[in-house]
What we know:
heterodimer; A: 9-stranded mixed beta sheet; 10 strands; globular; B: alpha+beta; 3-stranded mixed beta sheet; elongated
Amino acid sequence: MCKDCGCGLPGDVAIDGVRVGGETSRLAEPRAPGASARPDDHGHVHPHTHDHEHTHDHGHEHEHPHDHEHPHDHEHDHPHAHVHESPHTLSVEQRILDKNDRLAERNRGYFHAKGLYVLNVLASPGAGKTAFIERTAADLGQRVRLGVIVGDLATENDAVRLRGRGIPAIQITTGSVCHLDAEMVSRAMERLDLNALQVLVIENVGNLVCPAVYDLGENARVVLLSVTEGEDKPLKYPVMFRSAQVVVINKMDIAGAVGFDRETALRNVRRAAPEATIFEVSAKTGHGMDAWYRYLDEAVR
Amino acid sequence: MHELSLMQDTVIIATKQAREAGAHHIHRIMMRVGALSGAVPETLEFAFDIVAKGTMAEGATLEIERVPVRCYCPACAQEFEPTDLVCECTGCGRPSVDIQRGRELHLTSLEVS
């Protein structure tokens, strides 16, 4: 657990059953030129104090030159004598997701250098994400080699299932965290032989809310909606659907049985995700998957 | 509830900034949260009390400025405030892809001593 803030992150996160925290992601070092430091190896910034002399004033915002890692963890008294006693306002203006977004950009650069096309697959639990990925990998076979990073709160069932079909897969179990973030992905991908892949699929935690705001470094977001979920789902989760480049309507093979109103659903998808490409498929029967493969072929090229 | 993670990051940024300015206490944290940010202000407030405990922000007041969505419609050549998060133009009804405001999730300022 973090001694500074007591937050406990990411104590519960594990990759293929191994708890994360003791090692540093290969993307963390060396730092990109000009990038801010990652002061420690467990995912969030720890302020440190230091006792060398400063010749500059502290009454203004300035770039802090001492952003190297400090190996020691004891406390120093801060030597500045000019501590403000009365409350005053500090202007900060910082994006909360800045750190995740910087890591996501680093992931993106790394993927690009490897020549990988990366998909972030998002949906409610049970929409058929794993089946969709499984079908895609099986049908594309050696033509497009595909690997998977799969996130769930618990169990390695999905990774085991994918590996059972010969698909390279790494499981991230997030414990209590409801989404994947860029750092979890950067750690997990170390365990995949990325050089052997053309497409990396990140199957996010089943959730249409939280994962929407976390960029992982993907090329495209694929949001799945199954016919059993109701035609108005895109309107209920507009932030997620708006972020999608691709919307897949899955389980079309049972559309009739569940009284799925196709026209209404398509209209709602177009309202919430006006720029998304839409595919209507059944991952189970393979119906409609060819159009998706053509899209993917084009994107990978 | 990713608001817990978001507030954790907020408190980390706030305490870092406050310490760098030589402060010992954070009395107030001001944030700007857009309607399309994916974060719920009430949940952020709830999460804040939990994550601030034991830090220099414990007991601080969290003030959230809510930012409504503002879009641009190229067909009507005008900005508009949509009635919901689907962002359809109030003039012509076309869905807008040009979100000008409403995605903010910022720590704006701190009151420290």
